[in-house]
């Protein structure tokens, strides 16, 4: 098994204008429920559209809506680029 | 049949506190936030509505009635939610109402521009009830974005009646009423699309729910694929460019500051003339009233109590408060309706997170500019109880409309008047902005301190939706800001000002020994007040002003005037002369402004804090925190100024 494998990319690593598909959501509890309710389910196409002036949170385009997530939380949402 | 209906109505009354007549059809109004649900509600019910709370919950409940021919409907507005799986109080309310109240119809409002996300909720509701009407709203906005929805096909796919509307223009509302009537009257055969959940149920409820949501969205995607036609617009939308500016690294913060300062400047400039006209009219009326009392031979104490006490403080409050509020609130509501507030939350979230509090707190602070009591109630939007308490306790660190007139008057006289009289309104606007920024800075510091002492905890999460910018409806803005906000706050101020004016006058009228009670009290407070860089009268005015901050200046004036010769104050120049004659210095002015920003919240705010927290302890903290900051800051400034020989 290759232990030097690249870590799975997360939503937080997306550059502005970059798109990806959601792979897994490694969160629990209310936050996970909210994220799912907003349509961020595995397979969903997401585009990073902007960052706040301080660089955090970032805003994502999801199913025709714009959702802002803190980078700490977005880090737990793994994606396929 | 009728017996069942009566039982149903009894359940509605007992469980949901909803009083309906047997002839009414009951319609529940559901939908995501930001889909124009309240526009639909307002357009349908007009002025026949009232708001309260859901029983036992601190969530607003609005109800209203409308007619379709002879038939009356009772429309119950459910909280805006993304789901009804009962993860929050709002979702629980929405689900319980649809499940248990069994409305005659449930109207689901969805946004034509983001059908998928909205269909998630619609499909959930359709799984519970078949008496559903789907209303595809914001058709005009979708069209501008190049999105078209095939409503007939959508109706076929969902198996429920679908009506397209543009609520802001009223388009489609007649058809909507007709359809609601047909559904409530069981005239249509409805077989809603159910989401098949063929996976075996898991032991783990959370995993089970993951599957359900995934299945719901899969269906939503399928439906949406069949009914939405999108023509890609290559050009960067205006909205995108506006966001580029308003949330940009370089211009994001300066734009916020400029907008804040601009609103204050417009308020100050715009309020000048109407305030003067109102003051001269109302004070002229005072003279007529005095003549009338003389003619009728009323005793001097009665004239004093009613005219010099009650009427005069009322006149002051109306003349000074009404014009700025009638400008400030509409401007603010415009920004709110435009969709700017979520952008502010987006820009400032990081700073709040650093203080271990919630980014949505800025929205409650924005409400606080209007009225701190409203700001305290608005803290409901914060999910984490710890962060909600922080927002609630620190809310009165942003000055409310009742305090702006005091701040404006003093900074016009002592700061703008001294340094640059020709730029008066600009300087005043800048001073107010500085005061507000100080309040915001202190909010951050207090939040940090609270999070590391009595309200220890890590910042929870914050998910924000940035809804599209929408051109505000000017009629609705004016109506809402004038009726709901301006008149509401003014009414409260008037109710508080009249008795406070009478009490102040009485205290000034009753002579004990050589001086009036008012002067005795002021004398008593003088040592403490001196220490704060104020004087006894000012401190007394803040104490007597506990019911409403608006009456602080009138009480100060009345107390000064009860010994002086001047009997009415029609302009700022006269106000200036009175204050100077009573020994005001720049230090007095600055510390009065600071103390105005930093002292106990008014009784209404404290009552709201008590209602929201249900705790005397946290209400006491909300009282003590700003007071302590005010005492520390004012005494430090007074001490330093005196030490340096500046005052």
Give a short synopsis of this structure:
Chain A is of the alpha+beta class and 81 residues long. Helices cover 16% and strands 35% of the residues of chain A.
Structure write-up:
The complex is a heterodimer of chains A (81) and B (647). In chain A, 16% of the residues lie in helices and 35% in strands. With 81 residues, chain A is of the alpha+beta class. Chain A has one domain: SH3 type barrels. In chain A, strands 4-3-2-1-5 form a five-stranded antiparallel sheet. The relative contact order of chain A is 0.31. The mean pLDDT of chain A is 90. Chain B is of the alpha/beta class. Chain B has two domains: 229 residues, Rossmann fold; 392 residues, no CATH class. Chain B is 63% helix and 9% strand. Chain B has 25 helices and twelve strands. A seven-stranded mixed sheet of chain B has the order 2-3-4-1-5-6-8, sandwiched between helices. In chain B, strands 7-9 form a two-stranded antiparallel ribbon. Chain B has a two-stranded antiparallel sheet with strand order 11-12. The N and C termini of chain B lie far apart (82 Å). Chains A and B meet through helix 1 and strand 4 of A and helix 4, helix 8, helix 9, helix 12 and strand 10 of B.
């Amino acid at each position: 098994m290759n232990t030097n494998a690249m870590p799975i990319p997360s939503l937080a690593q997306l550059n502005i204008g970059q798109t990806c598909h959601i792979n897994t959501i490694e969160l629990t509890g209310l936050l996970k429920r909210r994220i799912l309710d907003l349509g961020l389910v595995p397979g969903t196409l997401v585009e990073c559209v902007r960052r706040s002036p301080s660089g955090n949170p970032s805003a994502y385009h999801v199913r025709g809506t714009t959702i802002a997530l803190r980078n700490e939380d977005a880090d737990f949402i793994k994606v396929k680029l | 049949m009728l017996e069942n209906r009566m039982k149903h109505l009894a359940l509605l009354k007992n469980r949901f506190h909803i009083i309906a007549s047997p002839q009414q059809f009951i319609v529940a109004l559901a939908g995501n936030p930001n889909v124009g649900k309240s526009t639909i509600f307002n357009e349908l019910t007009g002025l026949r509505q009232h708001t309260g709370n859901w029983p036992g919950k601190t969530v607003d409940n609005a109800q209203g009635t409308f007619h379709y021919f002879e038939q009356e409907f009772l429309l119950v507005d459910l909280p805006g939610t993304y789901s009804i799986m009962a993860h929050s109080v709002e979702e629980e309310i929405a689900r319980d109402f649809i499940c248990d109240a069994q409305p005659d119809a449930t109207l689901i409002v969805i946004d034509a521009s983001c059908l998928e996300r909205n269909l998630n909720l619609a499909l959930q509701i359709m799984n519970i009830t078949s008496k559903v009407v789907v209303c595809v709203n914001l058709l005009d906005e979708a069209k501008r974005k190049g999105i078209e929805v095939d409503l007939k096909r959508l109706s076929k796919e969902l198996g429920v009646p679908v009506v397209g509307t543009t609520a802001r223009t009223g388009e489609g509302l007649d058809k909507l009423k007709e359809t609601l009537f047909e559904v409530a009257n069981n005239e249509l055969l409805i077989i809603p699309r159910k989401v098949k959940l063929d996976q075996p149920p898991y032991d783990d409820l959370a995993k089970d729910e993951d599957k359900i949501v995934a299945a719901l969205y899969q269906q939503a995607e399928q439906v949406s694929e069949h009914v939405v036609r999108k023509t890609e617009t290559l050009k960067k939308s205006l909205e995108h460019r506006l966001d580029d500016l308003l949330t940009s690294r370089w211009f994001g913060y300066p734009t916020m500051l400029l907008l804040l300062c601009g609103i204050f400047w417009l308020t100050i400039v715009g309020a000048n003339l109407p305030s003067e006209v109102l003051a001269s009219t109302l004070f002229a009326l005072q003279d007529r009233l005095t003549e009338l009392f003389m003619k009728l031979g009323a005793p001097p104490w009665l004239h004093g109590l009613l005219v010099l006490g009650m009427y005069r403080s009322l006149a002051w409050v109306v003349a000074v408060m009404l014009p700025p509020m009638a400008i400030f609130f509409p401007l603010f509501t415009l920004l709110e309706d435009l969709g700017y507030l979520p952008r502010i939350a987006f820009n400032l979230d990081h700073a709040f997170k650093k203080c271990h509090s919630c980014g949505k707190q800025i929205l409650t602070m924005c409400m606080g500019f209007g009225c701190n009591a409203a700001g305290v109630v608005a803290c409901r939007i914060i999910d984490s109880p710890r962060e909600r308490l922080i927002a609630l306790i620190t809310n009165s660190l942003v000055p409310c409309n009742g305090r702006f007139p005091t701040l404006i008057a003093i900074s016009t006289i002592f700061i703008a008047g001294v340094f640059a009289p020709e730029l008066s309104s600009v300087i005043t606007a800048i001073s107010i902005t500085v005061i507000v920024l100080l309040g915001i800075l202190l909010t951050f510091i207090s939040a940090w301190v609270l999070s590391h002492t009595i309200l220890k905890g890590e910042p929870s999460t914050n998910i924000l939706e940035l809804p599209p910018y929408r051109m505000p409806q000017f009629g609705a803005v004016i109506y809402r800001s004038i009726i709901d906000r301006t008149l509401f706050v003014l009414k409260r101020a008037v109710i508080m000002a009249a008795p406070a004016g009478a009490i102040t006058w009485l205290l000034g009228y009753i002579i004990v020994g050589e001086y009036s009670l008012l002067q005795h009290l002021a004398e008593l407070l003088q040592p403490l007040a001196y220490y704060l860089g104020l004087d006894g009268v000012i401190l007394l005015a803040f104490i007597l002003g506990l019911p409403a901050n608006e009456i602080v200046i009138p009480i100060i004036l009345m107390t000064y005037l009860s010994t002086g010769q001047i009997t009415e104050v029609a302009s700022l120049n006269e106000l200036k002369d009175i204050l100077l004659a009573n020994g005001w210095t720049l230090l007095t002015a600055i510390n009065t402004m600071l103390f105005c920003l930093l002292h106990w919240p008014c009784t209404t705010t404290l009552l709201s804090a008590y209602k929201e927290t249900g705790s005397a302890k946290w209400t006491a903290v909300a009282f003590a925190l700003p007071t302590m900051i005010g005492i520390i800051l004012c005494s430090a400034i007074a001490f330093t100024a005196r030490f340096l020989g500046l005052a």
